[in-house]
Task: inverse folding
């Protein structure tokens, strides 16, 4: 359900969680993002998934360009290649891909079957959309330093699709 709420929809990626106590990280597509201790406290079930593959959800509005964020963001930053940038007035959508197998849910599999195609048609990369401040947006083809608000990250059981709480 989370994938259908909002426009653009939530980004999903396979990943793992690692760490101890309140120092946990979400690891996906070669990135390691420190999860805010408050989020760990809210999602205490994450400790049971340590080292297991899960689905990580990041809403487009949970990203921002690093130059638009104050404070230490070093443990929440990922460098991406902006494939496409849509300028929409006060905000911009930065589209990028990461080397990670796309998340295939039962609903997506059914939708693809209805269209006469299969999950392999999605390729081997995961597409992301970040909604950022237009004044700091990169140009298409440029590298971008994106900061993730890890208080807003979502975590799902890979097998059941249930939110991890």
Result:
């Amino acid at each position: 359900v989370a994938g259908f709420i909002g426009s653009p929809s939530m980004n999903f990626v396979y990943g793992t969680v690692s760490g101890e106590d309140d120092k946990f990280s979400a690891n996906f597509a070669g990135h390691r993002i420190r999860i805010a201790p408050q989020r760990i406290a809210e999602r205490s079930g994450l400790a049971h998934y340590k080292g297991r593959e899960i689905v990580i959800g990041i809403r487009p509005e949970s990203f921002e360009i690093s130059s638009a964020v104050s404070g230490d963001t070093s443990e929440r930053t990922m460098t991406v290649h902006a494939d496409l940038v849509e300028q929409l007035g006060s905000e911009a959508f930065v589209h990028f891909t990461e080397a990670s197998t796309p998340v295939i849910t039962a609903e997506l599999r059914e939708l693809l079957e209805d269209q006469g195609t299969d999950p392999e048609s999605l390729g081997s990369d995961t597409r992301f959309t970040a909604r950022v401040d237009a004044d700091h947006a990169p140009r298409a083809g440029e590298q971008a330093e994106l900061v993730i608000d890890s208080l807003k990250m979502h975590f799902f059981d890979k097998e059941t699709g249930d939110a991890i709480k």
User: Anything to note?
Assistant: The longest strand covers residues 11-20. The mean pLDDT is 93. Residues 106-114 form the longest helix (9 residues). Residues 42 and 105 are 25 Å apart (CA to CA).
